[in-house]
Amino acid sequence: MDWKLVDRDVLPRYIWFWMLVVGFLGYAIGRIGSILWGYMDIMHHWVPAIFIIGISPFLQKHWWWVLVLAFGIGFLISDLDDFINLRFWGVDTAEPRFWGVD
Predict the structure, then answer these.
(1) 24: domain range?
(2) How many domains is the chain built from?
(3) Is the pTM here over 0.85, yes or no?
(4) Which residues contact 40 (CB under 8 A, 6 or more apart)?
């Protein structure tokens, strides 16, 4: 075994497939959260999504950092309209639906 080999150099097979699955999982969790808790006056979930995306490069020692990044991107996309308009806190005003962004 080569001592220079690190965990990030050993990617699992079909990593792009798993990135899509985990990204959709992040999107689905974000949308379900908006539907269930969108009426509450709380922080929008794009803020923790930016935090998740921000910490993922620090996890590059491990191969699964790309899955954390994919989850964060999916989570951000589910609340994209609030991110674009920089709504940090408040009630979701859009009608709750699964497909789409509010």
Answers:
(1) 14-32+41-89
(2) 1
(3) no
(4) 91
